[in-house]
Amino acid sequence: MDRIAKPMIEDLQKSESYYRFILENLQEGLWIVDSNLNFKFVNHALCDIFGLSQQEIIGHNVRDFVSESEFRKILKESSIRKKGLSSRYELNINRKNGSQRITFISAAPWMNEDSEFQGAIGLIIDKTEQKRIENALNESEERYRSLVDNIGMGIALIDSDYNIKMVNPKQVSMSGKPAEKLINMKCYREFERREAVCPFCPGSRALSNGSPDEVETRRTREDGSSFEARVQAFPIFGNDNTVTGFIEVVEDISDRKKMKDEIQELFEARLQAESRQNESAQLAAQAAQLASIGVIAAGITHEINQPLSAIQMHANTLQYLIREKKYVLPDPFNKIFTEISEGTKRINSIVQHMRSFWVSPNSEPIEDINLSEAVASAITLVNRKALSHSIRLNVDLSPYKLLIAANKLQIEQIVINLVINAIHSLDKMTSPKKMITISTSASDDISILKVADNGIGLPAGKYEYLFNPFFSTKKPGEGMGLGLAIVKMFVDRFNGEIEAVSNEEGGATFIIRFPLMNVDRSAG
Predict the structure, then answer these.
(1) What are phi and psi of 152, to 5 degrees?
(2) How far apart are CA 348 and CA 312, in angstroms?
(3) For residues 32-50, b (16+ Cβ closer than 10 Å) or e, as one string?
(4) What are the tens digits of pLDDT across the range 402-455?
(5) CA angle (413, 419, 423) in 5-degree steps
(6) Contact assessment for residue 62 and residue 39, using Cβ atoms and an 8 Å cutoff
(7) What is the pLDDT of residues 100-131, one digit of tens each?
(8) First vs last Cα of the chain: how many Å apart?
(9) Which residue, among 108, 57, 66, 34, has the nearest Cα to 74 in the 3D structure?
(10) C-alpha to C-alpha distance for 412 and 380, rounded to whole angstroms
(11) Phi/psi of residue 140, each to 5°?
């Protein structure tokens, strides 16, 4: 009998040693309590959790290691175990050093053969660090959720198939639809009212290249209203570093764009105001300059008119006496007196033209005049001067009456000044074929006057200064730079436009356009 019992005892001891080894080396705390909740067995892992040795735990009651509220929880769970049921619950353990550990208890009842409760056996897992991490994550999640929910921009989480997975309240407000009607719907349909992915979609580019992108667009709400939006897309990466979706951030920039447009308008208005102010200053300076010239011109015309009137009166008197047979003079003298009379008339006409320097241009009446007729009259005054400079005038006037609202004398001054300007340009040329072309024509409701030459051309890079008073390319003493300024003054008065261009012959062409009142095609 002893020979049989001894191996059995050894086997039992060996088995007990195996199980004890396993229990002692479990990472989870193992415990056994009796029906009065006194510890009967604890392993090393549980000692570590309690911060005590086995001797400090075994034989002591559970109540010694927990608070009163926690002990009531154990009693409640114990009543469950007495009924033969297992239980799982959290328990706060008081350690020897005063700290607490958060643990997870898994307990099962220990019953005898008569199903009477003898105690409990269970595992205890230290969840303190896990709880700390969970609480930190929950706190972080709550913080970011609060930020996302209260931020002033729409935010949506969208997967790689363009399905909306999450929206914040601002995005809901921007779309005009409740959140439950947006979730799992296509973003391009709900946000852009399209049936396919938007061609400008920043999310599409974020999915394809894995980098943020943005675009400005106009979005429409459910009620039909719209707003200017800046849409940004940020890729979301999975565990394998592939893009699994994107976060869309939408900012309403309507007010910003409106403010930008208003600032731009104010800036442009300021530039225009400064430009008008500069123009006014230039006009004031020009007026002052012209005023000083006008005083001189008025004095000159006054001094010329007195002797000129005397000469003309004497010449006319002699012609009258000759016609009345009071005196008989040789034919050469008759011709001389006739030329003197014609010459005084021409001088008087020139003096009248000089009045433009000191008489306001607006003092002359505006009426319907024939443009070609006024040009022809001006040509008679400058033709001899052109011939004296070996310059041929090429005249091509419209055969029709081109009626414009202007003043005949001032139109003549325009032509005279342009021709004189062309003569000065041609004087610097050595070519034997010097020519000035003067033409009139009509196109639709515009009459056109052109004065062109084959002279030295326009000054390079100074087109904008051509019509400024006192601007001149001549040497000092050769001109005062008023001719083109007077031309521009009269053209503006008659609601016309003047343009200076270089022509194919290398010279300058001045093109003047006046509103055409009527064309009389019956005139030949």
Answers:
(1) -85, 20
(2) 10
(3) bbeeebbbeebbbbbbebb
(4) 999 999 888 988 999 899 888 888 888 877 788 999 999 998 889 999 999 988
(5) 140
(6) yes
(7) 888 888 888 878 787 788 888 888 888 887 88
(8) 160
(9) 66
(10) 10
(11) -65, -45
Residue 352 and residue 362: Cα distance in Å, rounded? 15
Residue 478's DSSP bridge partners are none
Structure tokens, 180? 């439950």
Tokens of 494: 């008659």
Amino acid 399 reads P
Which pair of tokens denotes residue 300?
């000159």
Phi, psi of 189 (to 5 degrees): -80, -40
Name the nearest CA neighbour of 480 among 490, 468, 493, 470: 470
DSSP 420-449: HHHHHHHTT---S-EEEEEEEEEETTEEEE
How many C-alpha atoms does 62 have within 13 Å on its Cβ side?
27
Instruction: Please count the helices (runs of H) and the strands (runs of E) in the chain.
Output: 13, 18
- Parallel, antiparallel, or unpaired for β 391-396 and 434-443? parallel
- pTM, to two decimals: 0.39
Neighbours of 293 (CB within 10 A): 15
Would you state the structure tokens that stand for residue 369, as one six-digit string?
């005049």
Are 319 and 338 a contacting pair, CB within 8 Å?
A: yes
Q: Tokens for 389, please give them.
A: 């400079």
